[in-house]
Amino acid sequence: MDNRRKNTAPLKKPDIDWILLAMALFEATAFVLLAFYNGFDAVALILAMGVPMLLVAQVLLLGRAFPHLDKYILTIANFLCGIGLIVIYRLSPEKALKQLLFYGVGVILMMVMTAMIARFRQWSKFRIPLMVLSIGSLAATLVIGKETYGAKNWIDFGFFTLQPSEFVKVALILCLAMDLSEKRTIAQLVPVGVFAMGCVGLIVLEKDLGAVLICFLVCMTVYYTATSNLLLVLFGLLGASGGAVLMYKLFPHVQTRVAIWKDPWATPEDGGHQIVQSLIAIASGGVLGSGIGLGSPNKVPVATSDFIFAALCEEFGIIIGLVIIALYAILFIRGMLLAMRARSSFHALLSVGVITALALQTFMIIGGVIKMIPLTGVTLPFISYGGSSMLSCMLMLGILQGVSIIVGEQDESQWRMARRRGESGL
């Protein structure tokens, strides 16, 4: 009886307080240095107190409200947001304050999504509205969207811009998880299949190569996880390979990006300027970095969004760049562990979809910045400047936290039942 009770007891969670304290001190120190490196900046000093407090308050308060919330995922994601704010403030204080606003709104959306995933059960009611809104927003982008770097993927409302494809990723994950957790035959999956193909097709027409790859691979990964139908996935990948070749032939900006990837030094002042400056910035920072405020990250084009990893490595060093990659890896691993522990296929597929999307996006942008793969123009999750990116990432963080709460409650319930059986001698 004692052995049975001992074996069914839930694992004790390791203490996170010292990690939280270290991350908060890192953020505070960085903003204090920014406050004094070029005269005195009162706003940076306020952020030195405000940003770490936002990190600590979230972990402590949400952890108290939801005991089964994954504090490690929450801490890492918010620390990455803080790192992004530090680098963006170094480059453009005005953009950093806008990013802080989006971060605050994102925290609210994350909490709402967490509560919905953890407590709401009738998700099928949202299937059709999510599909209609997703297709409608992508179609509207084709008609009234603004073209940036060859891709027509932004809608300009005057006082702010919106990238619908960022939110379509979240809707796609939700719809795929809903249908694939309930239906298994090909005929029953036709509606969600048409929706997924419609989303990918419209994004192709927008010439947004990065979003196309993420959405397609998320669909394939979630579908294979749900059905184990390797043959259909292989056919899908073969079709995607043909589509990639066709996109290369049809879209000149794709050809340009591939040519730059092959040899950016052939046009260092023109097409290859971004990659060249990115590589120079990373190399000039070295292992330990030039020091915050002492480098020249503003020489890297689009340093606050697409190339923020290069700007970060220049002043913080390659060592911090590797730490950032390690933190992403921990976040992804814990997300996949949630999927493995989930007793509901819906929640398992949600976790797989979210982690696949975030992991692909992280790999694609860091790989592009260091010239491992052609640059696709996506943002670095939680770090890069951009309201649409920040909000969609926080929504996906909320999905993971909602799944974590459900998994934790189910584990605790199972343990209590096993303990009662053990005490009664059953």
Report on the structure:
This protein is mostly helical and 426 residues long. It has one domain (2-423). The protein is built from 16 helices and 3 strands. The chain has helices spanning 2-8, 17-36, 42-65, 71-91, 93-119, 127-144, 164-180, 190-205, 209-227, 230-250, 252-262, 273-285, 308-316, 318-341, 345-369, 387-423; strands at residues 146-148, 151-156, 161-162. Strands 1-2-3 form a 3-stranded antiparallel beta sheet, covered by helices on one side. The longest helix has 37 residues, at 387-423. The N and C termini lie close together (9 Å).
Quick tags:
mainly alpha; three-stranded antiparallel sheet; 3 strands; globular
Summarize, please.
The chain is mostly helical and 426 residues long.
Over the alpha carbons, how many angstroms does the gyration radius reach? Answer: 23 Å
State which percent range the strand residues make up: under 5%
The string of secondary-structure elements, in order, is HHHHHHEEEHHHHHHHHHH
What does the average pLDDT come to? 88
Structural class: mainly alpha
Percent of residues in helices comes to over 70%
Side-by-side strand order of the widest sheet: 1-2-3
By DSSP, the count of extended strands is 3
Question: How many domains would you count in the coordinates?
Answer: 1
| Terminal Cα span | 9 Å
Overall 3D form? globular
Largest sheet: 3 strands, antiparallel
Number of alpha- plus pi-helical segments: 16
Q: Low-confidence stretches at least 5 residues in length (pLDDT < 50)?
A: 1-12
